[in-house]
Amino acid sequence: MRLRVMLLLACWLGLATTAWADAAVQVQTTLHDGEVRVSFQVTEAVSESVRAAIQSGLPTTFAYDVALQQSSRWWFDKTIAYMRVSAVVRFDNLTRRYQITFIEDGRVEEVRTTDDEGTALQWLTNFRGRRLSSHRLVEDGEYHVSVKAQTRPRMLGWAWPWTPGAVLGSVSFRFRP
Amino acid sequence: MAIFTRLTDAPPAAAAPPAPDPALAGGRTPPQRPLRDNPIFVLLAIGLLVAALVALVTLADRSTGLSPALLSEVVLYALVAVDLTMLGALAFVLARNVIKLLVERRRALPFARFRAKLVAAMLGLALVPAVLVLIVGSELIRNSASRWFAPPIDDVLAAAREIASDYYQDTQVQTGRQAVRLARLLSTSGIERGDVATIRARVSPEVASGRSTLVEVYRIAPETNPLEVIPLFDVAAPTVPRDVPRASADRLAARVAGGSADTRVIEPLGSGGELVRSASLVRLPDGMAPVGVVIVSEHLSGSLAQHSRRIVEAYEGYQQLRVLRRPIEGVYLSFFLMMTLFILVSATWLGLYTAKRITRPIGLLAAGAREIGQGNFDYRIEPESADEFGQLVEAFNTMAGELEQSRAEVQRKGREVEGRSRYIETILKRIATGVISLDTRGRINTMNSAAARLLGLDQSAVGQLFDDVFSRQDLRPLLSIPQAAARTRGGTAGHEIALVRDGRDLHLAVAATPLRDEGSSEGTVLVFDDVTPLIRAQRVSAWRDVARRLAHEIKNPLTPIQLSAERIRRHFTTAPPTTRELVDECSTNIIGAVESLKGLVDEFSQFARMPTPRAVPSDLHALLDEALALYVGLPRLTVVREYDPAMPVIRVDPEQFKRVVINLVDNAVEALAAVHDGLPASATGTISVQTTWDEGHRLARLVVGDDGPGLGEADRSKLFLPYYSTKGRDSGLGLAIVRRIIVEHGGTIEAADRMPHGAAFTLEIPA
How far is CA B590 from CA B444, B562, B568, B581, in A? Predict the structure, then answer.
């Protein structure tokens, strides 16, 4: 009984300190000429703590791990393609402008600035048509695309820092050319 | 005695073993000190721990200056991991020692309870202040953190940031409006043609009037993709530094020409100031495609920009601190918790270490005492310190060394006693004197082989009561000896007792001595000496003396008697015949009697003066044949010879040996003749002469037997006495002479009856 209470307390602490407690990842895939393109959007992505971190001028990273995996009935799913997309936002409290740097697999792809917080948050949480893979897919093969989203730094307490801070979303499809 | 002297006089110094090296000696190696008890190792570990703590304190002190990612992702994780590790270590140490305590108590090992009490005391002493410090420190941190974000500071910083931000915002809006206005003004200035004079004419007054501090005009090159911008004209107020770079203006112009909605940029200058730039597209009056870009910049002085930036940095730092409040609090609390756990773990370890430092030497001493108790006297304990425990260990090792020397001395003396005992046992086993010891209850304790042989006993008699063993018919004369010894009250009771064993006379000289030690009786020792040969020799000697005296006393008057008788006979040769016949008869009788007496006296002389045998290597069988040749021709007598072909050459006096054989055969012939008329010629029967060679004892055995009437029980003990004869017509010296010759050859002779009838004489002569 005591153990159960402690486990529940630990779960509560973990959930309470999770930045993206109510967040969810919506994933869409499109196939065009054998290419897999991914669009994903994180809803309820920005909690008050994350927003406060952004407003404090703290460089805040929205990192997304995108993976294309082929389903396997008897073994672990095989990862065919992987991509890490990051968007680092830096709010300038003097000019009240958001500067967002997009990084894909370690390369800086684009830098955008905006005065509008809504626009900035949309840029941070909404990605469209990201080219994930040009691998040849197996006809009638079962695939799924998973997106793991997380923010850094994680504003965690001291009680138990190993709280899961990521949100997962995935979509499956069967390849039919 | 010499051997006793040698054993007891052995120098003790030579037997004493050298004192062993305490560190090296020992049949069993004492347990080595584990690494964790090495002072150098302990000091090194403490040093490392202190260094780690200093590093952690430093890290915690600089936590606010660390990057948030490092703080929340690394430092906090590391500290919590260290906390959990120390918590686990504390739980492990406590659980291990509780389990050890239970096991040791179950095994009844020493010092388990003491160790547990010491650890509990140390832990209890450390627990209360450590937990109090943790609680107070945690609250202090929480309260301090709350004070960091007090409303006045928050409000002041927010207001300052608002002022600075609004100023920048206003400047940006103004420059943006001015850019739009100038773009509208330049729409008809021929910018598409590059009419710089017109542009200057319209822009310069703007700068001169102070509405703008820097204006830059670009022309968009038509029909380019992407659109390219070409700088046409720029004019700056004197307040603008000369080192204003164009690059940012060029990029802004290109971006705006490309259709970007982001038309503003703030550019820091090397002089410390900033330029707030705003761009606007210049379109022709018909509102068609853009033909140029105008950028209006407002210069902000260095001090203004610097102060504004400081205000914003302070605000952002403050806000970031608020954002990172929980991780920072976590770092401090984790640090406090770590210190608390460190104190508890250290207290527990210190308790265990102290307990071990105290109990280990005592445990080693106890183990050493057990080893010594089990006889392992060369066991030594390695001193681990130079304190009182070390001195105690040294004293123990010294004691063990002395014990070892004492044991060696005792062992040496034990070996001496054992050797002496073995020596006495050997003597008792080898001597011809029989020794029997009795305990206080009259049981036979020991009996040597001579006693067993003399008395016809075996070793099964040991442990039995003396009275039971000696109640046997032939040993009964000895029954009263122990009582006689007891009556002497410490003296020795001596007896000469004659026994008849296996038809033989046995004369024993018995000495019985009570054993007393400090007044208490410890039993009796009986010593038996076979004095039969001595008595026989004494008798023979006495008879020889008698014979010599008889021969001397009788022979002396015989000659005068004989001469007198002959003289009388000669004197009466002329006497009348009747007288002469009477004298002749008488003188003849006298002379005959004198001759007979002379023969008797000669035999006596011969017995008394028998010469010492001159032994030479002889063929026994040849001597036998020579002697037996005398009896060839007796009509009813058969002599059977059974010779052992293995008989070697024997050292005997040939003449004396033949005499022995003749006497024995004569004795047998007379025994056979006694059945008839007593004359040798009438002897009827068989005489056997048998020889055997006893290789084991190196003895030649000769048996002369007959099938006559045999020996009488009473005669058997007197057969070999001089002048004893069962026939009444001889001197009785034959067997006495035989016995004497054999004895002087170092041999023995025994007489026994044969079954169903007859007698046999057995001679044993050493080769």
Answer: 67, 7, 11, 14
